[in-house]
C-alpha cells in the first residue's frame, strides 16, 4: 500500500503545473480512472477466477474487443464523422490506401498489445499491469521533455524520482512475495512426502499407487 501511495504522490508531483486546471476535466479524469480500475478488476476475474469460468487471454480478447468497438463506435461517429467525410473526399486513391495500411498496422499492434496485457494479468495480477502502465506514462513524460521541450522544474523532477522509487519498491515486494510462495509450496510438498515416508535424502518422491492405494510395481 505504501508503494502505491508513493507512486500516486510521485505522479501528482511529476505532472504539477501542466496545463490549465478545469474542474470538469478533473471529474472526467477521476471517472476514467475509476472505470479503468473496474475494467482491470473484471479482467482479473475473467482470467484468474473460478476454474470453470476462467478464460484464456485469447478468448478474453475475442469476447471483449467486439463489445468495446460497439460501445466506442457511436462516439466516434458523433464526434469525428464530419471531419472524416470531408478529409476522405479530398484525398487521392493512393493516399486512401496509405491511410488504410497505416490504420491496419496500428490495429495489429493494438491487438498484440491487448493480448500481452491479458497474458500478464493472467500470469501476475491486474495491479501489476497497472503499475507497468504508470511506468509507461513516465516514459511519455520524458519523451515530451526530450522531443517537445516541455517545461520540467525541480518539483516535477522530485515527483518523477518518487514515482520511480515507488515502482521499484512494488517490484521488490512482488518478487519477495513470489519467492515466499514458492518456498511455502515446496515445504508443503516435502511435508506431505515425509508423512507418507516417501523421501530420499530429504526430497519428497511421488510413488504411483493404484485405485485401492497399493503401490504399483514394474514386473520384469
What does this molecule look like?
This protein has 220 residues and is an all-alpha fold. Helix content is 77%, strand content 2%. It has helices at residues 2-14, 23-48, 57-90, 93-123, 126-148, 154-195, and strands at residues 199-200, 203-204. The chain has a two-stranded antiparallel sheet. It is globular, with a radius of gyration of 26 Å. The termini are far apart. The model is unreliable at 200-206 (pLDDT under 50).
The number of distinct helices, counting runs of at least 4 residues, comes to 6
Helix content: over 70%
Structural class determined from secondary elements: mainly alpha
Topology, number of strands: 2
Look at the structure and give the mean pLDDT. 77
What's the overall geometry? globular
Poorly predicted ranges: 200-206
Amino acid at each position: 500500500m505504501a508503494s502505491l501511495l508513493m507512486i500516486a504522490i510521485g505522479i501528482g508531483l511529476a505532472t504539477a503545473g501542466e496545463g490549465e486546471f478545469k474542474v470538469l476535466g478533473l471529474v472526467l479524469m477521476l471517472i476514467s480512472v475509476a472505470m479503468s480500475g473496474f475494467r482491470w478488476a473484471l479482467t482479473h476475474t475473467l482470467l484468474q477466477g473460478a476454474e470453470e469460468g476462467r478464460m484464456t487471454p485469447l478468448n478474453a480478447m475475442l469476447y471483449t474487443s467486439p463489445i468495446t468497438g460497439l460501445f466506442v463506435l457511436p462516439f466516434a461517429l458523433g464526434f469525428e464523422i464530419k471531419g472524416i467525410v470531408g478529409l476522405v473526399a479530398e484525398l487521392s486513391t493512393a493516399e486512401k490506401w496509405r491511410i488504410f495500411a497505416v490504420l491496419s498496422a496500428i490495429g495489429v499492434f493494438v491487438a498484440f498489445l491487448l493480448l500481452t496485457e491479458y497474458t500478464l494479468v493472467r500470469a501476475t495480477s491486474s495491479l501489476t499491469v497497472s503499475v507497468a502502465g504508470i511506468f509507461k506514462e513516465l516514459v511519455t513524460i520524458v519523451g515530451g521533455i526530450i522531443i517537445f521541450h516541455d517545461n520540467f522544474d525541480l518539483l516535477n523532477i522530485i515527483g518523477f524520482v518518487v514515482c520511480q522509487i515507488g515502482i521499484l519498491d512494488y517490484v521488490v515486494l512482488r518478487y519477495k512475495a513470489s519467492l515466499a510462495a514458492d518456498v511455502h509450496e515446496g515445504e508443503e510438498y516435502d511435508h506431505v512426502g515425509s508423512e507418507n515416508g516417501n523421501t530420499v535424502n530429504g526430497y519428497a518422491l511421488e510413488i504411483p499407487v493404484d485405485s485401492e492405494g497399493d503401490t504399483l510395481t514394474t514386473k520384469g
